[in-house]
Amino acid sequence: VVTIEMKTSFMRPAKVAVGQKLVARGKLQHRTRSLAFTEGRVYDADGQLCAVATGTFKYVSRQINQVPSTD
Q: What is the torsion angle, in degrees rounded to the nearest 10, for the CA atoms of residue 57, residue 60, residue 66 and residue 70?
């Protein structure tokens, strides 16, 4: 997988006390044969939206590493 585009927008500081957790939710928005469009959101302990990220990723075939020639 190769990253084509990625963006993160920070809305507010995450306020989390000791023992509390942030909650992150990710979603595949759309997929084609060669691309995936995704979105992620992070919420603080009060459920307030703190950050949103989007990304576009391209599927690529894995190539077998070849030993470089010494010629």
A: -60
